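Re: that backbone. C-alpha cells:
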C-alpha cells in the first residue's frame, strides 16, 4: 500500500506541474489546460455545494472520505483520507482551496499514516483552475463536480489524472455521497428502529468523547493564554446551543416519521464531528508541515 501511495504522489506531482496542449476528451472526468493558460474568474461562493462530509469507495475499493469546511478568510480547508482494505489509514491529504488574483487554486500535501509528509517541508502540489461550470470545478488534472448538477449536495465526483506510459489516459475517480445517505447501512446488526436508534446513540457517544479529547488537548496547549481559553470555551457553549437548535429543528421536521430519532442523532453526530475538526484545525495543527498534535479526526462510523 505504501508503494501505491508513493506512486500516486509522484505521478500527480509530475502532471500537476506540467502544461499541456492535449485536446479534451468528453469521456474523461479530468481536463488539462493549454500551455500558459489563464485561469477564469471564480470565487469560493460558487463552490458552496462542496461543503460537508463525503464518503465512498477509493483505491482498490477500500473506503475513502473527503471533508470540506466553509470558507474562512478566502480559503476552504479540506481533508481526504484513504483507508486500506484492512481499515487502516493508507494516506491522507490536507487541502486548501484558495481564492487569489480573482480566481481559484487548489493546493494539497500528502501524509503517511504516521503523519510524515510525502512532499518536502515547504513543497505542495498546486492545481490551477481550468474551467468553472455549474456544480463543477475543473482544475488542471483534477476535477471536483456534483454527481448530478440538478441535485447539488447529494453526490460528489473527485478525479485526478495519472501520468502513464499507456496510450489511454489513466484517471483515479472517486464517487462520494453524504454519510446520511449511507446511514441505513451503517448499523448492519440493527434489525429494528429501536436497534438503529441505539446504534446512532452509541455513535454520538463516540463522537462526543472524541470531541472532548480534542478539546482537552487544545486547552492544554493554550493553558498559558487565559483569554484564548475563555474564547475557546465560549465557542464550545455557542456550538452546543447551535447544535441543539439545528438538530432540534431536524427532529421537529421529521417528528411524524418513525426514523425521526435516527435522523436527529445523525444531525448531532455530523455537527459534532465538524466541531472536532474545527478544534483540530485551529488549535492542534501548525502553519508549517510539522505533524499536528493529534491526527485529523475522521467521521464517526
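Recovered sequence:
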Amino acid at each position: 500500500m505504501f508503494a501505491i501511495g508513493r506512486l500516486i504522489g509522484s505521478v500527480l506531482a509530475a502532471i500537476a506541474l506540467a502544461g499541456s496542449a492535449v485536446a479534451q476528451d468528453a469521456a474523461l472526468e479530468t481536463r488539462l489546460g493549454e500551455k500558459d493558460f489563464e485561469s477564469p474568474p471564480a470565487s469560493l461562493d460558487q463552490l458552496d455545494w462542496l461543503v460537508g462530509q463525503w464518503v465512498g469507495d477509493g483505491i482498490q475499493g477500500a473506503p475513502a472520505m473527503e471533508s470540506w469546511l466553509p470558507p474562512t478568510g478566502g480559503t476552504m480547508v479540506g481533508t481526504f483520507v484513504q483507508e486500506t482494505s484492512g481499515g487502516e489509514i493508507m494516506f491522507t491529504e490536507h487541502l486548501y482551496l484558495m481564492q487569489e488574483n480573482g480566481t481559484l487554486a487548489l493546493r494539497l500535501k500528502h501524509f503517511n499514516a504516521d503523519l510524515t509528509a510525502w512532499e518536502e517541508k515547504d513543497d505542495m502540489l498546486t492545481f490551477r483552475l481550468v474551467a468553472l461550470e455549474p456544480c463543477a470545478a475543473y482544475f488542471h488534472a483534477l476535477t471536483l463536480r456534483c454527481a448530478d448538477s440538478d441535485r447539488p449536495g447529494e453526490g460528489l465526483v473527485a478525479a485526478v489524472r495519472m501520468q502513464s506510459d499507456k496510450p489511454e489516459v489513466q484517471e483515479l475517480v472517486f464517487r462520494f455521497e453524504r454519510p446520511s445517505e449511507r446511514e441505513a447501512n451503517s448499523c448492519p446488526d440493527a434489525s429494528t428502529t429501536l436497534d438503529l436508534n441505539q446504534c446512532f446513540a452509541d455513535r454520538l457517544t463516540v463522537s462526543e468523547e472524541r470531541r472532548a479529547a480534542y478539546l482537552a488537548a487544545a486547552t492544554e496547549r493554550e493553558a498559558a493564554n487565559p483569554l484564548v481559553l475563555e474564547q475557546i470555551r465560549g465557542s464550545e457553549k455557542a456550538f452546543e446551543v447551535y447544535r441543539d437548535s439545528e438538530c432540534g429543528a431536524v427532529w421537529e421536521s421529521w417528528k411524524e416519521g418513525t426514523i425521526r430519532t435516527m435522523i436527529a442523532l445523525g444531525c448531532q453526530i455530523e455537527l459534532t464531528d465538524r466541531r472536532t475538526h474545527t478544534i483540530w484545525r485551529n488549535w492542534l495543527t501548525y502553519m508549517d508541515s510539522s505533524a499536528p498534535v493529534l491526527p485529523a479526526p475522521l467521521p464517526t462510523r
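Strands lie at 52-57, 63-68, 75-83, 89-100, 103-112, 125-133, 136-139, 142-146, 155-162, 170-177. The first helix runs from residue 2 to 16.
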